[in-house]
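note to self: the first set is below, dont mix up w the second
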Amino acid sequence: MSDVIEEIQSLEAEAPGHLFGKYELGKLLGCGAFAKVYHARNIRTGHSVAIKAVSKQKVLKGNLTAHIKREISIMSRLNHPHIVRLHEVMATKTKIYFVLEFAKGGELFTKVAKGRFSEDLSRRYFQQLISAIGYCHSRGVFHRDLKPENLLLDENWNLKVTDFGLSAVTEQIRPDGLLHTLCGTPAYVAPEILAKKGYQGDKVDMWSCGIVLFVLNAGYLPFNDPNLMVMYRKIYKGEFRCPKWTSPDLKRLLCRLLDTNPETRISVDEIVSDPWFRKGYKEIKFHEEHLELKDHHGDENSADKYLNAFDIISYSSGANLSGMFKKPDNSVKGERFISAEAPETILAKVEEVGKTENVAVVKKQGWSVKMEGQNGKFQMTVSVQRLTEKLVVVEIKRSTVGVEQMWKDKLRPQLNSLIYQPPSTS
């Protein structure tokens, strides 16, 4: 595994300012506790992307591995015009890279900080926000940190929801039917989260959408105080006043969004039927496709897909074929190595080597094969996955009972020629 990581690290330094030979890094767009976001250009297409670089050391130190994996999993299942799209995930020895859709217009926060929006413009962005959040909820995803800083604008000034780092999925709901993790930004947090008795993910998102709508229309927060506990008390009691320019229909909608009782708080379906919301509303139609973390060169059904580099960097199995064995157990061992050979060449070589010891292919699936020999005593699976345009990762899993010596002395040495040797730097 260390060979894989060292090789990925060497690839990062192929050229100054280049990442994996695919992206040319540009200026720093933003910086947080765990990540930095850069503007970058796809060298092949010339298209702009945003690259979020996360420190692996900080992830491990903060025990956030599961957190990052969940963010990747959530973003990979979302494909909507008003949600920032995740194109792919890559990694080096020290960093995890999210390659994201680039929102040229920046944060909505910077725009509203200069002054409140008109009611019509507030409505336009709220309609786009509800479309995106309703889509998330229909797929079992709850954002839990909606605020103007996490709402971006593209080159056409359309809204894009981003930062799913605090998101939850239906699988996290406890037997009581509620979520229990305390999270969110203080001024946008729902009262039921403060009560610490559990909450529904869709209801807290509706509350935060209400805060966002209030801010767009008013130019300031509905609940605010230098003393955090005083602010929490206001949130818990639902004490706020709409500015005098707020129309009666908008005020009524805000009161339903900022209802302290989650059971009676307005839902997405009810919002879409609301008279104020429906003014000028056009249902957003789009063609949804299955989203995978893959390289842009391959199609969805191709075996030529890039390995999820996060799996490598977190030392977990990204190409686990143990399920192909009838009875996977501790008698199965595995190893990985990098190769510059074509996947077809590698599998042909493996098959050729196997024949010398009467080990034959019994099952093929894409770039994976299962082999057996020695009257069924020896079983081996070989899987090849794309790492970069030039390199692949080969994973071999094998049975060990009674045949380990055959592997070490006869089969393994014949595969050494496939292992990639990095150019000498001396």
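second set (the one i keep forgetting abt)
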Amino acid sequence: MIKVLKPGMFSTIQDKGRFGYGEYGVPKSGAMDLYSAELANTLLGNARTDAVLEITMTGPKLKFEAESYIVICGADISPSINGEIIQNNKVYSILKGDILEFGKLKSGLRSYIAVKGGYKTEKVLGSQSYYKPITINDSITEGDALSFNQLTTKLKPSKLFSKLKPIDFSSEVLDVLKGPEFELLSNLQKDQLKSTQFMVSKLYNRMAYQLLPQINNDLKSILTGPVLPGTVQLTPSGRLIVLMRDCQTTGGYPRVLQLTESAINLLSQKKEKDKVIFSLVD
């Protein structure tokens, strides 16, 4: 069991998300940076579908009540065990009574804590991912007790390291595909999408990222149609909204671009005032 001494700014249990419920308006949810979450599980020898703890900008303070192994991937938020700084992307042995906490954000935005064997939390509609009101909680809170599968064997030294490479969070390039309404754009609008360096506005969360500056827009709204994480919508005001893991399942704004999976992972590690550019791929 892990006791939550401090929850951090916004920390949630996430796995790969819930699938098959879009027709009922249920978001997919899941880890925002799915690559980093899967990397953490891979380093521990967990299943890629095991749940992890996603933390945002400010990390929690956690006390372990049982032995285990952990890995932290994603953003560098200066993690430490019992006051001793540790590294991302490396397996650490945890003893009963150890305290894991975080400090200054150095790179990225979201970090992932995987524990050997995975967290044992309730599955709702096939997923452990927090999303209120589908789940009771929308984030962990002080005093929570997070259960995890207890160790039965020790990890072999060969499994303690990996050659898998983490994401380069400094990159500004987001690979995108043409959206269903892309061809309705004028040549000027297409050029603006391809050549403009956009900035993450103060409006960004697990549902969507809004970008600045606005671009010229005279397109009409469309009939409500399906949207996905990574769909880039162009609003009547000319603002671009990039839908993320907790997004709705339908929308009425033109869908001008679609982020690739790797681009969603990268954008999820961006914060206010960070810059991004779109790169159209075939």
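remember for set 2: The mean pLDDT is 93.
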